[in-house]
Design brief:
alpha+beta, 26 strands, 19% helix
Amino acid sequence: MKKILIVISILMVLFIAVLGIGFYYLNNIYIPKNLKPMVVDILKKTLQKDVNIAQAKYFPFRGVLFSQINIINPDGSLFLSVDTVDLGLNSLPAVKGDEISAKGKLLVKGIVFAQDKIRVNGSSTVNVDVQTQGKEKVNFTAVLELDNFAINGLAPVADITQIRGKIICTQDSFSSEKLQALISGQTLDININGKYSQADMLLENFSLKYVNTKLSAEGKVFEFENPQVDLKLNGVIGLADIAKIICGIPLPSISGECVIRADALGKISDLAVLKAFLKADIANGAVDKIKFSDFSAEVNLKGGVVHLTPLNCDFYQGKIQGQAKATIIDPKIPLECSIDIANVNFAPLAQDFTSQDLGTGLFNANIGISGSVVDLNTLTGAGRVKVVDAGIKPPPRFKNIAGSLGVSALEGMQINEISATLSISDGKIDTQDLLVLAKEATITGKGYVSLEQYIDFELAFKLNPEFAQKIGGGSLMQFASGDDGVPLAKRRIYGTLPDKTRWDKIEIPVTEIIKNKVKSELENQVKSFLNQEQSADDGSPEQSDVPVNEQIKEGLKSLKGLFR
């Protein structure tokens, strides 16, 4: 019995020694000199980047653990880093004739992917079940489990703060299970399944749901090296969801549901040959407080140019029509578009925009714009706006202005017509010929409204002669007579629309205006007198050695200093 125990002890020592020697050989000789260089070489050739693996170790009954993997771009910047890659077996391989089966696990921790401004952080687990049938056929099931992934720097798309769920791949198919992403605190659900081969991929179903947005797609992808697509998509986009997904771009509050139908055919990498079509319909929607209905538009992509035509929309009992063209193969994305607005009811539009009853009228406009979509400040254009059949009430602040003008009767003024020619440049909509007509007065103006809804205008008020006579005439008549007209007053309105604006008084150089007017009248009188003096008895003008302009100057010498 004692001898048996001695033999068993010797065998155990030998077994432990063999394991130790094997463990030492694997970790100090085979893995550093063979396995690790082989993995590094494969990754370098595949990725065309520099690859460093700090350490690779084998642990009995567990597998191989790779530590501190760094993949570096040619410029020296980090492409991908991984803290650990734990490659192990869930069970020992089973062999039965020509059939071999094995189950393994790949645990990846501390992933950091950095490319430009995009950064991906997280960890994942891949469980693999491999079964071979003879030498030719290999069946496998790989399950990628995601739990704590995050993607940052996708602007203008918002950060994805968490990705979780499973992606399941076999030798010829793929699908998802409870795949979700968290964007702006809302869950995006994704379902996908299809089949693939070495040459192409069939997308049998792709669907996503995000709050009120529901989209589905199907199609095929050909030639993976230079992908070509034949895809169809349809569904509903909740317009309010756009603001949740898009960040970094100031967007107005939008609401409504857009029904879309789209398809694409051609090479993804070559927009010049890719063909695409999109049809969008919105039954009812709103931008901030402004409402619209029965919106419809068609978009066609062909030859790298996007054509939007026609665009139709019902807008406050009127119509908006438009068309546009943008060349997307040009990095500046040059745009050309035109918009026609016809017979829009001013009353409800003003009520929604300003929350005030400003009267009635019909709004019409036509505008043409061209420039780069990349920088809206480069847009240039021209147009014309006009409000007719109007009975528009001035805003409440006009009461104070009428008081400061000393003409309280203007408080009840109603505007009959508004017109202006527009020019667009440098992020501003500018006019130099704003004209506002009322029975009581005529208002002219010049100024601009910026894309940020900042307004800066100078307005000149001139009483109509009939109104001035009706309210008493007197000193007011000087502002109502004369073709050039002396404005009753000038005001500057500036600030952010619709309600953060100020009205400032602009001083008018009345003395200078009167001086110029009197001087002009005297010049006419002197000129007339000189012409009469030079007339011959037979009615023909006499010749003079002194030019008429010099004679006028001589005639005005006596007025020197009169207006100092």
